[in-house]
Amino acid sequence: MDGRAPIAVTGASGYIGGRLVPRLLAAGFRVRCLARDPGKLAERAWAKEPGAEIVACDLGDAAALALALRGCRAAYYLVHSMLAAGPRYAAVDRELARGFARAAATAGLERIVYLGGLGETGADLSEHLGSRREVERELGNGAVPLTVFRAAMIVGSGSASFEILRYLVERLPLMVTPRWVRTECQPIAVRDVLHYLVACLDEPRTLGRTIDIGGPDVVTYLDLIQQLAALRGLRRRLVVPLPCLTPKLSSLWIHLVTPISARIARPLAEGLRNRVVCRDALAQELLPHRFLPVREAMAAALGQEAEGTTETRWSDAGVVPGDPDWAGGTVFVDARELEIDAPPGAVFAAIARLGGRHGWYAANWLWRLRGILDKLVGGPGLRRGRRDPEHLRYGDALDFWRVLAVEPERRLELVAEMKLPGVARLEFELEPLDDGRRCRLRQVARFKPRGLLGLAYWYAVLPLHGHVFRGMLRGIRAAAETRVDARRIPEP
Question: Which of 80, 97, 352, 436 is 20 to 30 A from 265 in CA distance terms?
Answer without folding.
Answer: 97
